[in-house]
Amino acid sequence: MGESPKVNPENLLEIVKGAYQGKVVLPEFQRSFVWEREDIEEFLASILQGYFVGTFLMLDTSPDSPLFPFRPVEGLAQVNGQANPKEHSTVRLVLDGQQRITSVFYALYAPAIPLRNSKHPYKFYLRLKPMLEEDFDEAIVGVSTWDKRQLSENEALVSQHRALPFTLLADSGAFRRWLFKEQQVWGEDEQTRFDEFYSRFEKFMVPVVNLSSNTNKDNIVNIFERINRTGVSLSLFDLAVARLYPKEVKLRELWEQFKKEHPGVAGLIKPEFLLKVIAVFQGKEPRKGNLLDVLDGLTAEEFLERWREAAEAIVLAHERVREEYGALEPGWIPYTTLLVPLGALLWKLKRDKAGQAAYENVDAWYWGSVFAQRYDSAVDSKTYRDFGEVSRWIEGGDPPEWLRRLDPQSLNLDVDEPRSAVYKGLMCLIARRGARDFLTGQLANLNECQDDHIFPKAVYQKDHRVDSVFNRTLISKETNNRKGDKRPSEFLQECLEGHAHNHEKLQATLDSHYILPDAYEALCRDDFEAFVKARGGALREAIAQLLNPSRARRSVGGVS
């Protein structure tokens, strides 16, 4: 028998720098980088908190005659195109740890490549005050480069000495120079804490299993497959199961029962969502540490009662986003994380037998959170704060300050990423308005409709942003096939025939897609820019009314 491979501690930052230099590479049989923004934020938070992040498996091999074909870490060509693995006598193939290594590489070097399910790159920032408070949910923020508003906000924080870009952490010299400049801004104690956090990041060690180039190729593949099959980390839910076990609370059985009774909801959420609702009900921010403390403070009977309430709350939230907010399909929900505060608020309204005005306030908060993209980051702290502020509002207090100050005209609505909360929110508005069939004017089966272009992409993509959400709507498959690549003016003639050549009836159908008379006229002229401007204005006005319930009640005619 051969000698068993040994586990040695290695510096994670040095491994990532090796990827930047082209020495740490990926075997071709590895999948692509699939982590999303939230995964990267969570992993960076784990490092800064000194958590165990799993074992890494490496294979040393010659770059000229490697055991397996390899490729560089994704994004290397964008940030260090001069790096050449063949300049090294040996390279290190990452057999396990690719997602973790690439996520840190992405945050530190900011390659101009989109993350999974995104069309645009992300930049990562470290907010200093939350970091000092060890609130890493708030401290680590990833921002899409298309989101100019959030980019501007975070760059302003950098200028105000309240944040720094993660790229600064790639080089210790750059960080030390930054820290020296901060002497006149932050006190000595804060600077010491910054240095401690950076040292934790810079010196973070991980266990690495190194395989030599003499290892049999079949054995390497078997080891790789076994690690990928068994490499499961403990979740918050797993920790909660262990905490509740001595109280004879069988949390897994409770979750299995919930899945059996509410399969549609359970398929959308993590079991931790119910635990977060419980934390909110107990007056705590639903962070991991708080949540486990909440569980410790409840008897078995108290926990079971709270679990039943949390389950009801999540179901209420799911029903409302489907039936009132237009998210007819799971993929249309702008933020599944919003189900936690929404559920807690709806449960409170039901318990208190609240009236219509209270529900309208919750609706305004929901839509404001979606279109201001508030739940892109710092979810747990916003959940806790929003529950308290909206609760006081529905009890007769003032609206949350951020909602009072939210100007619909300042919102960045002209998006083209189907996964963004704004995009999904606008499609939900169209769905809840009816989105009648263009050819017949009849109600469409929205669950089976396609999200597609109004001005056809094949004809207009050269000169216009055809993927803008303002140029998209819900169309039945049959009608979409009829539309094909026809120009709007041509397709409208067919639509008019289907409405017995009655322009008013056709306008009513178009209205159900937020295509008002000025946008209709632009369609007739095949004027793309005039159309998206008019339709964008109609959608913005609809949002303004959602954010101001009293205004919507006073509104007569126009967009409702």
Helix and strand arrangement:
Elements: E1 7-11, H1 12-20, E2 24-27, H2 37-48, E3 56-61, E4 70-71, H3 76-79, E5 91-96, H4 98-109, E6 122-127, H5 128-132, H6 136-139, E7 140-144, H7 148-159, E8 163-165, H8 172-181, H9 188-202, E9 205-211, H10 217-230, H11 236-244, H12 251-261, H13 263-266, H14 272-281, H15 288-296, H16 300-323, H17 339-351, H18 356-371, H19 379-394, H20 401-405, H21 421-433, E10 450-453, H22 457-460, E11 472-475, H23 477-483, H24 488-498, H25 503-511, H26 517-524, H27 528-547, H28 549-554
Parallel strand pairs: 2-5, 3-9
Antiparallel strand pairs: 1-9, 2-4, 3-5, 6-7, 6-8, 10-11
Helix pairs in contact: 1-4, 2-4, 8-9, 11-15, 14-15, 14-16, 14-17, 16-17, 17-18, 17-19, 26-27
Question: How would you characterize this protein structure?
Answer:
This protein is 52% helix and 9% strand. By secondary structure, it is an alpha+beta fold. The protein has three domains: 224 residues, no CATH class; 171 residues, no CATH class; 134 residues, no CATH class. Strands 1-9-3-5-2-4 form a six-stranded mixed sheet. The chain has a three-stranded antiparallel sheet with strand order 7-6-8, sandwiched between helices. 39% of the residues are buried. The C terminus is likely disordered.
